[in-house]
Amino acid sequence: MNARRLIPLVLATTLAALAFTAGPALAAAPTIEETFTTEVAATSATLHAKVNPGGLETTYTFEYAPAGGAFKPVPEPEGAGSLPGDTTGVLVSVHVQQELAPGASFEYRIVAGNAVQKEVLGAPVSFTTQRAGGEFLLPDGRQYEMVTPPEKEGALILGSGHFWDEGSDHFYNAGGGTQGIQASVAGNAMVELASQPTEAEPQGYDSYVSVLSTRSSTGWGSQVLAPPHSQGGGPALLANEYLLFSEDLSRGIVQPEGAFSPYAPGVEEQTPYLRTDYLNGNVSEHCQSSCFQPLVTRADDTASPFMPFGGAVYSEVPGFCENSVCGPRVRGASPDLSHVVLQTSTQLTSTPGSGLYEWYGGHLRLVPGCDLAGDFEYAHLNEEPGGRRAISEDGERVITTCPGAGIDITDVATSETVEIGGADTYMTASSDASKVFFKSGGELEGGDLDMFEVTSGEGEPLAGKVVDLTVDPHAGEEADVVGVLGASDDGSYVYFAAGGALAPGAVPAVPGREGTCAPLSEGTRGGCNIYVYHDGVTSLVSAGWIAPLYAFLWSRVSPDGRWLAFMSTHNLTGYDNRDAVSGEPDSEVYLYDADTGRLACASCDPTGARPVGVDTGVGSGWLAGNVPGWEHFFEFVSARYQPRYLSDSGRLFFESAGALVPQDVNGVRDVYEYEPEGVPTGEHACSSSSASGSDVFKPAHAFEVGGRSGEEGAGCVALISSGTSSEESSFLDASETGGDVFFTTTSKLAPQDFDDAADVYDAHECTSASPCPTSVVVPLPCTTEASCKPSPTPQPSIYGLPSSATFSGPGNITATPSSPPPKKVTKKTVKCKKGFVKNKKNECVRKKNKKKAKKSSHRKGSN
Q1: What is the CATH number of the domain that holds 85?
Q2: What one-character DSSP code corresponds to residue 609?
Q3: 140: alpha, beta or left? (left if phi > 0; alpha if psi -120 to 50)
Q4: What's 553's DSSP letter?
Q5: Of 712, 693, 715, which Cα lies nearest the Cα of 704?
Q6: DSSP secondary structure of 755-809
Q7: Residue 214 in this model has a pLDDT that exceeds 70
Q8: Number of domains in the chain
């Protein structure tokens, strides 16, 4: 054959062969990239799978089975289909509504195939259907009680972290707690924050204001705690002039704003005040006169020569107010507010100092040191904010810092001070300040966690020793402590996060990411470990923890130290926490039990369905479950109060946007309770028999995450808010035991609640010591979302006309809140026969049915 003809022939044959093999070479078997469930109800669920066809037309079939049973095809038409070969990562779904039993466990998988491989089995995914229907029952034998007054004079009650934005004309959630919102330890009093006074003409005050509500045998009553401004107008810089309240709410500290206005006789300069809220331990005995005690007066100021103290804290011109907050500034106080630490640039005592003073018993005492410990330590948001426990419970010890000089502990009564050598950053302390936790070897990132323990006895010079709590078992490795999540009251337990591997099962820090628990970048993981130090042993709580922004503000340790509640965006117990809409990892709320070493995801959906979270929009990522942060006090780093959402019994309160129980049908955030199995809480305990339309038992289960295995503890998840409000409900605070939990909601849960504005309610645990009223209103059982969601209505304006300065009444503290006025009707002459009486509608009804008829009428109107 001619060579010239042979070359093209060989080339053509080769190209044809390449073309023949190119198709099969690029094709592959289908792959199942992910599977998950959403919208799991009593008898239905939506199954999802993401399939990559592998370059060839691919068929798929969803299969399901009872737990442990044989798989069979899903009967719905959408349960099978085909995908073209030129697609990748196709999300396919089917909503199963047949043959699913209520309260049962199931598995499903997807089976895909193409010309390369006829059958590719996806990994089985488990889910548990909700119970069918079920009535709404509050857990722990609770009943709803309305805390705020029904008539609020156009004021709005603010939820935790919510502020009014005048620019956008709506409320926004700033995250964390809100300054001035607090419950008493006993649960018989509550301070709320309102957008304006809830009473008519309250002493010339027309801006944000604290409202004190107290519980008596006749119910709840409220009183505005407005300082006596001489003219209309309120605070401009802060949301509230009340900075702190005592644990029983009998006292409050007021930091005045704006123009000088004396709140007590004889006051000549701007100063903070201690306000008495109620007297003699009786919450019903409200203070009506001489309630404000100035913390600094000319009589207290013993400096010579005298210098005016009412100017701004950092003003170089004495007496000149260059800021909206003037005079000595409150930095902290003991829990009962008997000791208050102040800071000012003006010398207030005969002995010169650096500006810190403690008020006690009407007198001022100089405190050595520059700042209250932790008050101005930013440290990338990883520090204990705002000097947590920098003042001992009895107020006799104060922990302070000075730049470059470590940490000092001062006995204010004796003026003895001991310096903690080598301390870089204050973390926290025990309630009596006998144990002080701090970081050494790294001011902002890394370093060790140490404890200074006071060893001197009573009457002896103040002295102590330093103990390293993070001795790394691997020689040459750093502890890489990131921050402290909290400590028990007595300091015997301290929980902290670190990148170092300090206990078996821990994950070493990601190279280049030491000193942080945040993700490396979008789609990649960083993470660190959570540890607990107790009885000389450092134990692992969780490995590979990835924290949301400001995470150290959103964690709490129970007073006895057994329990730790925290948030994480990392899957710690095997639950798929990727958001069903965005695909981003959602933050969930976890509870750790130091006695058993078990970790439980309190906010994870009991059905196993992937969460539908909320985008915070402030850099904190997506939230499926959340707990409140420390309250705002000037800045995050100056927080002073943390809501009590975790008790010694492990009772945990949190918020969730998901429907974790059948009766949650409103599609917005609600308040929930989690209780560990078998732990007594008051007169009740969670068990496997705890189940209703609003209470779900989650059994213990084994899990494996990242090659590490564990067992999640069992517990009960119960709805605290109604689950029917058209607006989100917000957790505010709880009593020390959790027997009283306070939240805001727009649902009408009491007969006297007649408007659509948000109110504060108490889900009160009925016990023999604190019984509930005999007549209560609970939400009607819900069957569909449409039947339970009330229609939203416009909210009243937060701005009203300026109030006068003449109000001096007691509010509604002496009377049960009244019901709304009856509807106006045309009067007719109606004569009723014997045994019947006329009601407000001019109708004849039987005497014995009158009360029942009213209650029924209200229930119909409130849903």
Answers
A1: 2.60.40.10
A2: P
A3: left
A4: G
A5: 712
A6: SSS-EEEEEEE--SSSPPPS----PPP-SSHHHHPPPP-PPPPS--PPP-S----
A7: yes
A8: 3
As to burial, measured by CB atoms within 10 angstroms (0-12 exposed, 13-18 middle, 19+ buried), residue 154 is middle
Q: Does residue 376 sit within a domain?
A: yes
Which of 468, 493, 519 is the last residue before a domain boundary? 468
Q: Which pLDDT does position 414 carry in this prediction? A: 85
pLDDT of 232 > 50? The answer is no
SS3 120: strand
Within a domain: 545: no
Lowest mean pLDDT among 258-267, 374-383, 801-810: 801-810
Instruction: Please state the pTM of the whole predicted model.
Output: 0.82
Q: What are phi and psi of 23, to 5 degrees?
A: -60, -60
Q: Cα separation of 718 and 599, whole Å?
A: 19
pLDDT band at 46 (very low <50, low <70, confident <90, very high): very high
Q: Are 96 and 47 in contact (CB under 8 A)?
A: yes
Rounded to an integer, what distance in angstroms lies between the CA atom of residue 651 and that of residue 678?
Answer: 12
In a domain, 161, yes or no: no
Query: Which segments of 640-780 are extended strands (E)?
Result: 652-656, 670-676, 695-698, 701-705, 708-712, 715-719, 730-734, 740-745, 759-765
* Structure tokens given for 9: 């022939």
Alpha helices in 207-348 (DSSP H): none
Domain boundary among 98, 128, 158: 128
Q: How far apart are CA 22 and CA 444, in angstroms?
A: 57
Which pair of tokens denotes residue 281? 């331990």
Beta-ladder partners of 586: 622
Give the tokens for residue 606: 């009991």
Cα–Cα distance measured from residue 624 to residue 443, given in angstroms and rounded to the nearest whole number:
33
Q: What pLDDT was estimated at residue 806?
A: 25
Quote the domain boundaries for residue 839: 825-863
Does any domain span residue 38?
yes
